[in-house]
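Quick one - first record:
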Amino acid sequence: MEWKSLSVHLKNRRIALGLSQGALAQACGIKQSYLSHIELGKRKPTLDQLAAFAERLDVPLQWFINGKVQPGYAPEDIALELRALGISDLLASKVKVPGAFRTPEEVLILSLRGDEVDPRVLEAVPFILVNRKWDRWLLYAYARKYDARALVRLGWLIDIAFIIREKLPHQVDPVSDSVLEWIRKQAWDKRSKHTDGMGFPTEKPASLPAVHRRWKISYATTLSGFIERAKALGEAGRYG
């Protein structure tokens, strides 16, 4: 975990609640001098002590990592959660360990928002879409909350997911289609007049697969790229 700023977040929260070092130390069963060393960054608390701080200060353990009550939204903040969703081969140079995992729906939408989407994540999404169950309302709500483009991108990726399932019937686990079909319908109604390359548009739009053109997506990749990624993830899950 990222504990570099733990002392700062601990001290800020204590002061915000109007607690003295002595009062917090007594409530947590430690000496004031020991707490002082923690706040100065000279000592690190044990897990039991950290849990005691969290309980007394009314914050989750996540607070001591980034000074917030939930993990961040950057690629390095969601990398471990994406691995847990099934993108087992995802590598990130600066992975941040969160204090807790969010819902799969929120993580998926976070990975699809913004002007640029990580190709390694994007091309894995069709595989995970047809290998787990999803909550339609959470997917829709998080898309509306974070980035409306994510919903349209999701609709396009659902179409690709269905194609992959036909091509690789033994590589994916069939789940109910009703949620994905409902999301696809909502996404279809939200399409923009402009194409979306997600930061990596092709220079030859005419060469794109029909499913890309249908959704006004100009992202530079072929269906074979998605299929090969699904094969790799399927094998990794089977033998990993």
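second record:
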Amino acid sequence: MDELELIRRVTAELPTTENVVVGAGDDCAALKGGREGSLLLFKTDAVVEGVHFTSETPPEKIGRKALARCLSDIAAMAGTPTAALVTAGLPEGFDPERALAVSRGVNDLARRHNVAIVGGETTTNPERMLISISLLGEALEDKIVLRSGAKAGDAVFVSGELGGSLEGKHLDFEPRLEQARWLADHFKPNAMIDLSDGLASDLRHILEASGVGAELRSASVPISRAARQAAANSGNGRTPLNRALSDGEDFELLFTLPSRDAVPVLDGWKAAFPDLRLTCVGRILAEPGLRIRDDKQIRPIDLDGYVHFKQPE
């Protein structure tokens, strides 16, 4: 059983209450109980040594990444983060200075985004470090963006450039909080998600939640220099395009909106965020499935991003 099947099985039996507006299946839960006209957002995520970072990773960057991953999910729903709890699972004989440096990494990023660290937990975790963040935020009821609203005819956009994140970006990425709120204010997307597992995998999440399909244009996918270099150096046959579709941990925004807004959003984004690329990479279709078009053909995309517990083929 891989991660996706486990999630499907577990979420089929979850209890709920009348306060739950959005439960499992989106980037964050959304709950009643916030200020008038707003919803509480609630997100948890963890980084594990040997999976999300190595023993050589600078500790401040470990802490930064742990919080940044949650911030990116708040961004995907056009929200604003407010407060967090931090759980640290540490092995026997851990280095206290390293643990304190991890905490500084969390705190420095929290201060940048006006997030209060309000407590947490420490526990023993055999053999390796684990940092888990539980993050609260809020989103205006009329501005929140879900995965489930994509419509046939929508244009599909991504921010930034994709692929090759293990060359360094996965530790240094900037959660797109400002950009997401700008979108919600000016061109509210029909659907949005952050790119944690790769363009192919995360677009499928939108398609499944929305009951639609999509076609990407291979020539339009914004491929990072790191992805091109990794493809040239690896010798494993993975092309730069494949890396951009499936490497994951890009933590950019992927969103859809009506095609009539395509040119205005590109122009407005360029004026508001001149140093961050925005690219229209395809369109939403009524028929299910994910395809990609190049000069010669339209073909299904059979790539997946990272999936926990998946056995090698």
